Amino acid sequence: MSRTRPPALSWRYALNRVGQALLVLAIAFTLASVLLAILPGDAIMARYANPELALSPDQIEAIRVQSGADRGWFAQYLTTLAGFLTGDFGYSVASGAAVSDLFAAAVPATLALAAVGLAAAVLAAVAIALLATFGRQRWLRAVFDAVPSLFISVPAFWLGIVLIQVFSFQLGWVSVVDPSPAEALVLPALTLMVPLSAPLAQVLIRSIDEVRAQPFVRVTRAKGASDGWLLIHAIARNAALPALTMAGLTFGELVGGAVVTETVFGRTGIGQLTSQAVANRDNPVLLAVVVVSTAAFVLVNLAIDLLYPVIDVRLRTSPGDRGAPGNQGGHSLRAASGQADAPATAPADRQEAGA
Amino acid sequence: MTGAASAPHSTPGAHAGSAPGSSAGLRIAGLSVDYRDRGGAWRPALTDVDLSVEPGAMTAVVGESGSGKTTTAAAVIGLLAGNGRISGGSIELGGEELTALRPAQLARVRGTRIGYVPQDPGTSLNPLATIGTAVAETLRIHRLATRAQARERALELLDRVGIDSPERRIDQYPHELSGGMRQRALIAAAIAARPELIVADEPTSALDVTVQQRILDLLDDLRAEGTGILLITHDLAVAGERADTVAVMQRGRIVESGPAATVLTAPTCDYTRRLLRDAPSLTAFSPDGPQPASPAPEVRRESRPARASGAVGTGSAGRGASAGEGAQAEEPLLRVSGLTQVYARGADGAVAGVEDVSFAVPAGTTHGIVGESGSGKSTIAAVLAGTLVPQAGSAVVAGIDAARVPRTRRRELRRAVQLVHQNPASALDPMWSVGASIAEPLRSFRIGARSERAARVREAMEMVALSPDLAERRPRELSGGQLQRVAIARAFAARPQLIVFDEAVSALDVTVQAQILRLLGSLQAELGLTYVFISHDLAVVRGIAQSVSVLSRGRQVEEGPTARVFDDPQDAYTRRLIAAIPHPLG
């Protein structure tokens, strides 16, 4: 195993993961198209069948033919797919604006909100987890151990309203009327942070507890290490992997969270774009929202998958090596921790015998 | 402490800080430790323990699990579990009272003056840190060296503990090293700051015998350099062979202590005598010759014609003669021939899996399979149980070839062959009562009427000397020895013809192990069962098996009657295995 050391990151593995990501995107696009096609009516009907416009059914039908809405869904699906592949997301039925322009306007605001919210959530999760595991007093640990459950139970819309009520109207710290860019970001980011940090903190607490119970931590303590040394040198990296996985998954939460948060705080962004598109039955925009958020989700998780081997050296062997038994040096966390159960089977002792 | 007195009292290369003369070394006096249980009550774990470790001497603490020996080690390094406290007594190291130190002061003692060698090298190294980092960590924690100096010293230490090509190993990660090398690295880490005392908590119990011997040799070398060693072990033979002083613990108290030779040859305490009687390596290899733990096979063995000759590592011709009298002309119950399942092949001829294994087991006898981890023992067990179809060869059990079992006879085979694993806790469903577990084969093989099953479970439990009152208990409420009895009762309940024991007694304390072995022997005599007994422990195999196969890296290096293989081993590897068994009595 040590004789031929495979490259740190195998290209086959990376290509494989990229292929999977593309597949997920294609499936998401198709599913969204099908679901939108199944819904009764369409945006043309929603917009022009309005009695106030007093258009005759023939006139509406003419508009439908002109916009291509009269063709079968599969023909529309192919047209849209071709458009997406060439970077043309089509036009909003509601406003007539190019979907790509709408996105260009909305993405930066949402990105700023998401980045700040996620960063705050990670910081909060680490702080909560540390207090819940390394807190000096028993009651302190118990309190912070309960925080994730509390955080996950708080509805985002309610939290947003309470935050505005307290910090803007009563304390007057943050202006909601004509705020500076920073001011406009603080409360929405906080609202986003709370539900995001909960699962992260929960997973982090459990994995810190789990790592702390490992024999190697005891061995490190026996070398005279302080709590701080233990945390930095022995626990942090080992406990990071599960939390990282969770962070990737909570990114999905971020998109849903943005819808509520941006609506409550009246921010422009993908969330608001989405809620308007739903109200207007604006299928081209909705489809783009689904595809763009799926792409973001897939990208983030792809990046995290590729990060694993950087953090965990045991994952650096190429997948091809995994088949051979007797080569069970611990290619995964599970394999490594499983050795504790088998006192008589220290792995790869053939090396020792050959030495 | 005559053994200790004869040891050198100087500590070359040791601390300036350690006080000279009589106060050097470790002195534990009247130590008591309590643990708080879930109800909040304090329960004593150690009571009035007196121990000492002289510089350059080794004191071994021996006892069964739960006797308090690991608590003793934890108290010395100041790492009692969170619910533990020292309720009395003193621990003095080099004249300094450790129990009086504040946590931060104690942390300065750990690593620098006391080195700790843990039990399981598989999980005792940070999987994400290099070997070099782990070895030099003590120096970095206590700021005794710069990064570059620490690396230099780590190279030195790796070389010192006998790890080949330290320049390469230093940057490798634990999963790239074998168990033996990891334990060497852990010892290197423990001695990095040249401590005056090493606390070694079962340092070899997770290792193969030949590796164990080399690790113990290494500890011997450190002792010769003047380091005091507190060795915690369940293995009386290891303690007797290596230690100057042996202390026997039972239920948190030291029941006997003195020079190793005295404790082992003239024990004054009943508990020590029982431990000595039950230790397979002491009974099977004492100068008086083998005294098998199981009385029943002994009868057979005496009636067996003494066969000094025997084909080595080849087919099974004439093997029937080595069975009990009744089985002479019969076809053996199990005949394995040319069994091959090769997963991978090493450059040096090592095989992962097994290659060309052949042996035959007459009905009513036991065949032992001995080998170190990775030798392919468990691959054989999987084939016998019909869960693995090998690449080549056959394993005929009572007329059914387990290696090529036709679909129609699969259930028949499953019933004829039962498996007992090493870890009963994982082999029993934690949600089921043990009675339900024992009844499982009765249900799945439709043995007996529904109304009879309770009676059969009761019968099976009585057979393995378990009180039938325990049938309603869950596995977590039973001890390891009781659970293994449950697993055995379940195997017997199916009324099999062959039982495969895969390291079935390896995780048990010696006295429990001896009880189980005696039980297996009498059940075999009573029911005429055939066993295949897989173990890394030669002494256990010698005590129970009539014939034995020795496996090394997937190859069967030797096969024959037990007495012949052990008394006159033909293969170099077998000789090395036998030599690696501790010989405490000379």
Automatic annotation (TrEMBL), chain A:
It is found in: Cell membrane. This is ABC transporter permease subunit. It is a multi-pass membrane protein. Residues 107-308 form the ABC transmembrane type-1 domain. The keyword Cell membrane applies. Gene3D superfamilies: MetI-like. GO terms for cellular component: plasma membrane. The chain crosses the membrane at residues 21-39, 111-134, 146-173, 185-208, 285-308. Belongs to the binding-protein-dependent transport system permease family. One of its GO terms (biological process) is transmembrane transport. Keywords: Cell membrane, Membrane, Transmembrane, Transmembrane helix, Transport. The keyword Metal-binding does not apply. Pfam families: BPD_transp_1. Residues 320-355 are annotated as: Disordered. It comes from Brevibacterium rongguiense.
TrEMBL record, chain B:
The keyword Transport applies. It comes from the Bacteria. Residues 312-323 have a biased composition (Gly residues). Keywords: ATP-binding, Nucleotide-binding, Transport. GO terms for molecular function: ATP binding; ATP hydrolysis activity. One of its GO terms (biological process) is peptide transport. InterPro entries: AAA+_ATPase (IPR003593), ABC_transp_ATP-bind (IPR050319), ABC_transporter-like_ATP-bd (IPR003439), ABC_transporter-like_CS (IPR017871), Oligopep_ABC_C (IPR013563), P-loop_NTPase (IPR027417). Residues 10-21 have a biased composition (Low complexity). It comes from Brevibacterium rongguiense. NCBIfam families: PRK10419.1, PRK11308.1. Residues 26-276, 334-578 form the ABC transporter domain. Residues 1-21, 281-329 are annotated as: Disordered. Belongs to the ABC transporter superfamily. This is Dipeptide ABC transporter ATP-binding protein. Gene3D superfamilies: P-loop containing nucleotide triphosphate hydrolases. The lineage of its organism: Bacteria, Bacillati, Actinomycetota, Actinomycetes, Micrococcales. SMART domains: AAA.
